[in-house]
Amino acid sequence: MKGLPARPMHPLLQLLLLVGLAIAGVSLASFLALAIAQFVLGVSALDFSALTANPSRHPQGWAALMLFQGLSLAGIGAGALVLPLVLRRSVSRYFAPRPLGAAWWLVAAGLLILCLVPALSGVVAWNAGVHFPAALHDFEQWARANEDQAADLTKFLTNFSSSGRLLAGLLAIAVVPAVAEELVFRGVLQPNLQRWFNSRHVGIWLTAATFSAIHVQFFGFVPRFLLGLVLGYLYEWSGNILVPMAAHFTQNAFQLLLLYLAQGRHLPATFDPDANQALPWPPMLLSAALSAGLLYVLHQRLTAAAPPTNSLAPSAAPPQP
Hints:
The protein is mostly helical. Helix content is about 70%, strand content about 0%. It has helices at about 10-40, 45-55, 60-85, 90-95, 105-130, 135-155, 165-195, 200-215, 220-240, 240-265, 280-305. The longest helix has about 35 residues, at about 165-195.
């Protein structure tokens, strides 16, 4: 903030402050969602709990849940945006220490995600079929039941019976998560972990693990962890939060478009975008090779454009004991 010196704060304290701001943000956003649902959709707060349990029975179930999901995530992202203001730092400098060098950075980040999709299909299929040791059999059954329930809700929300629903889904499931989650994980968590452990790579890997674990999907942990690594290194190399946001949005939007096309029977009937099936080896190997090449090019071009400026740079405020 202009006229006020930046307030140095230990990384742990910044992360605790982030949690508090995120809770405040999601609380306010949830209240707003309930108010809109009440006065616009005719869904009362009392109806909302029953609607969540069985949304298909309510005529406004889809709209109410999509509204709640979008606004809740937006509230969490808003909490992350407020953090630099509390620290008396520029929001743009906090999340984008380097200016966006060129529009092709965003395009290349999205292209990288599309190239990765076939290769990741093998990891998705493997992780979905993982079995825990016999001693954890009960936990595995509980985890699978929870994930099946979450999958049913996701399937309900991604039932795009019209182009209007698709646009709403793109906003609530693609745009908002890409912005909010990147602000929280790559924008705040990653640089603070890097400062705390004094290691860029440790910060990126711990952030990727947290990013995957927070979704509480044990049978999708590994592919989401790998995606988190890609997003983390894109942010590290570019120094601009818009780059991982573009990649994250591409991942989400691509999945939604596939579902929409499959539901409209614009894709072969044998194609099921919800299936955790690996593609044949040739396209997976080609995907892995193209992705590795694109990652190398991005690393060379982004880091050559200017030295990364992030939380480990000399301009960053030193951690306070």
